[in-house]
Amino acid sequence: MSLHSETSPLFIDRLGPPDLVETFAFLDRDPVVNVYLLALTVRDALAQPRDEFWGVRREGEIVGLLHLGGQSGAVLPVGEDLSATALLAEHVVARRSFLPRRFQVIGRFAAVAEIDRRLEARHIRPRLRRRQVYMAVERGQLAPFERLPELRQARPADYDLTFRTGAMLRAEELDEDPRAADPIAYAKRVEEECRDGYTFLWTEGRDLKFRASVSARTLDAAQISGVYVPPERRGCGFAKRGMSELCARLLLESRAVCLFVNDFNAPALAVYRRLGFVNRADWGSAFYDART
Q1: How far apart are CA 221 and CA 33, in angstroms?
Q2: What string of DSSP letters covers 255-274?
Q3: Per-residue model confidence (pLDDT) at position 291
Q4: pLDDT tens column, 134-155
Q5: Residue 261 lies in a domain
Q6: Distance between CA atoms of 189 and 183, rounded to whole angstroms?
Q7: Domain presence at residue 121
Q8: How many domains does the chain have?
Q9: H helix or E strand, kind and range, residue 275
Q10: What is the pLDDT of residue 105?
């Protein structure tokens, strides 16, 4: 498959272990924004059979990249070359049968919008679209704060609390209750959270004050996701203290902490900016439940 531009043709091909060095070099152009895919590539070395990596090349050099998660449903485009983005978007359509029924497209807003447009032309529409802001704070830029030793990693004994509050988080953020939408996968994910310790909790007795997860981590960056404070506890500064403590711990080993947040979530944006986060990219997400 190729596409001609004003300069030279583009070609797309499947990436594998022999392409590791080239793939790392491409993603490492922005190791903070690309931290999730960098961590995934380090873990699987482009050899996970349930995932696909595709690269768009111009004159032999990668100018765009696409991750397709055959089990996770994660569709992750990378790159700012408009012609490459168009080719990647068309390839998502061509590889639709590889993806599970429920899948999500996440990345720079222009790339997500292009994939969304081409899927919609085939009558595949997302149940939810989000425009977001990708933000980061670097080591040495975190605002001063009062330390919070109470913040801890989730443990197996926290399963019920993690299960319940995680469902509340997803219902608020993604307009669906995972206990009804995908109960088996959700229960398994909560088990992993409590087993592997990548979700952090601040509790008072059996009640939650704050929770957040670390979705990817490299020496360059750590990505935070799933930041949540129960509605009845908001406005008390728990998000600021919890995020400050988590960022401080992550910055001991990573040079930056990053996350993406809905562009309409003014309270969260204000908290992150007070902590020292700055905008890094115009981001977007589209969530699909294609039953056809």
Answers
A1: 9
A2: SEEEEEEETT-HHHHHHHHH
A3: 60
A4: 999 999 999 999 999 999 999 9
A5: yes
A6: 10
A7: yes
A8: 2
A9: helix 266-275
A10: 98
